[in-house]
Amino acid sequence: MKLSTLKLALLSATMASGILAPQAFAKPVTEAEKAQILKAVDADAANIKDAALKIWGFAEVGYQETKSTAVLQDQLKAAGFEVKAGVAGEPTAFIASYKNGAGPVIAILAEFDALPGLAQTADPVKTGIPGQVAGHGCGHNLFGAASVGAAVSLKAWMVKNNIKGELRVYGTPAEEGGSGKVYFVRDGLFNDVDVTLHWHPANSNSAVQGVSMANISGKFRFHGVSAHAAGAPEKGRSALDGVEVMDVATNFLREHTPDKTRIHYVITAGGTAPNVVPNFAEVYYYVRHPDPAVVKDVWARVEKAAEGAAIATGTTVDKEITGGVYALLPNDTLGRVMDANLRKVGGITWTPEEIAFAKKIQTTLVNPPSVDTVKTVEPYKVELEGGGGSTDVSDISWVTPTVGLGTATFVPGSAGHSWQNVAAAGSSIGVKGAVNAAKTLALTGADLFANPDIVKKAKAELDQRRGPNFTYKAMLGDRPPALDYRKPAGAAHE
User: Could you tell me how many helices (H) and strands (E) the chain has, helices first?
Assistant: First the structure.
């Protein structure tokens, strides 16, 4: 779908879903039932904290989250869920299910991978952890723990009130660059899901529904000929030269790509000694744009730059797409339900100690907002522009109605993927935000089980947004999961 067509579909669906008019649903969950759910989450808060901090300490990167996934699976098994591990060809993935007869199938997503290069203590000053590389700079330790906590409390409500339907938790690894959820979608594991719920750690409390950028990521591995860089340079063919020529060509390419295109890269292997012509080098690329078709086109041009660089430098190059995701489709029908429940839960109150922690972190930031912003909930809206990042949740949003929220788990003003976020994610600040997210997810799930009209309207909106005759095809093709995408590059090639 071209960008202009996508925009028109989004705008049309927004108008059709009644963004300017409140929606009324026929069979709301009673206040007594909602109070029961909130009480259950509070009772389970210790387990949410335990899981969140254990996973924070493990700090395992994509497809290597063996300890982290075990923590979440164990909690779900203890709560009476049936857990199937190793789904979608991913050893650390799982699907947990509780089913009580025929009814809606509601899914809750759980992430748990960390980011490389962000090891940090839970202190308000930059302090690395010796021997550790990764850290939860995106708060996925909180994400997974809160989602499981929401599911446990929602199941308890289903049991007590004999609610029909199936509740699932999808344990999805490698969101950070590995596109773990894409393989779930590609394998048809969301085909029978009616609605998918998710959340994400954030600087504020919000159920704003927005878009994201489509993305393809991958690695280019150049192979050359080693030689003594001083004694016999004419005998060498530098793989690093191949990478650098490719990078120059790609940087020239930026001027001739559609607006909003993003291209970024990092050299992951480039040799070990200046006096040795490197026979192996690797560069890791991302291409992003709101329109998946543009991403595919620009990626093909980046591949041509790699091929030309190999010819120019007398090297060869191997290409591997390691990730690829669609742009996120918002759902206003579901967003309004999520927003109402977030407002019922409310903002977050920090202790004097937590405020002091946050303000110390804010001394490292530029013009941060007041810490009091965590007490409030942002106004609801649907944003059809923006979305600088990418997420594999997007692929799910094209095959089933999907809705998310953010809660204040980080210090206001903090940047994503930062040491400041790692510190907050390992503190009581992060845990409090996770508990609020669990409450909101559980209340929203209850609304969906209780009123099939909401689900029906959400599905109709999805049909409008994605347009007619849509057939899902993964951006990363038919490759198996890139289970080694976080492993060090080039060790076997030097």
Answer: 13, 10
The closest of 96, 475, 50 to 294, measured between CA atoms, is 475
Residue 176 tokens, joined: 């950070």
Count of residues making up the chain: 494
For residue 391, is pLDDT > 80? yes
The average pLDDT across 86-90 equals 98
Domain boundary among 297, 325, 353: 325
Interval 324-347: pLDDT, tens: 999 999 999 999 999 999 999 999
**Does residue 239 register a pLDDT over 50?**
yes
Tokens representing 319?
Answer: 């290409």
Q: Are 290 and 213 in contact (CB under 8 A)?
A: yes
For 243-288, the pLDDT digits (tens) are: 999 999 999 999 999 999 999 999 999 999 999 999 999 999 999 9
**Within 10 A of 1 (CB to CB), how many other CB atoms are there?**
16
Alpha carbons 124 and 179: distance in angstroms, whole number: 31
Task: Find all residues with CB under 8 Å of 305, minimum gap 6, and list them.
Answer: 246, 249, 250, 253
Domain carrying residue 409: 7-211+327-466
CATH number at residue 268: 3.30.70.360
Residues 6+ positions from 393 with CB-CB distance below 8 Å: 109, 175, 181, 196, 198, 328, 402, 404
Interatomic CA distance for residues 329 and 155, integer angstroms: 28
Of 325, 346, 370, which residue is a domain's last? 325
Query: Cα separation of 198 and 111, whole Å?
Result: 9
Contact 213, 262 (CB under 8 A): yes
DSSP character at residue 234: G
